[in-house]
Amino acid sequence: MAKKTTNPTKSLKIPALIILSAKLCAFISTKLVTRFAAKIFTTPIKHKVPKREFEMDSKSLKKTIYVPSIYKSVVTYLYGASERKILIVHGWSGRGTQLFKIADELLQNGFSTISFDAPAHGKSEGKTTIMSEFIASILEIERQFGPFEFAIGHSLGGMSVLNAIKDGLSVEKAVIIGSGDIVQDILDEFVFKLGLKKEISQNLRDFFENKYQVKMDDFSAYRAAQKIEIPVLVVHDNDDPEVPVKAGIHINENLKSGNLFLTGGLGHRKILGNQNVIRKILEFIKND
């Protein structure tokens, strides 16, 4: 019997029980549903390392480092022995070995990679996290393992890379794949998938801004892009069901030195292992 293939354009769905719970909370009170939504929004799913990532996982030198600014520790992966180092940042509910095909090709081309399990992801401790903790982890990893020649980020990792560069990460070039863009759009989509009224996304934004004393839009990728001088390759799939292609296009429009590469039929995750994408990344980082 042929194996079932995963449709790369199929969006991940929120479990029905969580949607039902959200609607019940909304029936009780706006404050309760806002707190419930915030909890779900900041809680990633920890997946087991799939077999395809075993080689990178086993061959990497792992080290747990403490990130003082967020009072949390993360597990890092040094893959390869070259002094030419590239930082790799996974997305939401991802792992430090998720971009293993890209890392393998980089090794074969004379680079080593540093990746990490973000807080509450993979082997790192914790249950909840937010993008600012991804960014803080990146900056601490640069301090301990840098300098890096290049940085590559997927999805939320792409947003985090752009924000980290804005905040001082020093790299020659960056690659972002399937990156989100406007934070409010992300909140709106999340609230829609929960089956809640749109105004709840405004409440959710206010909740996070009050809790963390930040402006959520300050983390939008296009705003970081406006302050970035280095060349950035923006890779996005036209059929990405989780992060619409308009996000990648808008980020590229706001970069001073942006390069847009659009694919088709690869969705949000299959794009990470596509040979044409990997070839484009290698060409981008190698060319002056």
UniProtKB/TrEMBL annotation:
InterPro entries according to UniProt: AB_hydrolase_1 (IPR000073), AB_hydrolase_fold (IPR029058)
* Residue intervals of the AB hydrolase-1 domain: 86-165
Q: State a single Gene Ontology molecular function.
A: hydrolase activity
Q: Which SUPFAM superfamilies match?
A: alpha/beta-Hydrolases (SSF53474)
- Top-rank taxon of the source lineage equals Bacteria
Sorted alphabetically, the keyword list is: Hydrolase
User: What protein name does the entry list?
Assistant: Alpha/beta hydrolase
Q: Which organism's genome codes for this protein?
A: Flavobacterium chungbukense
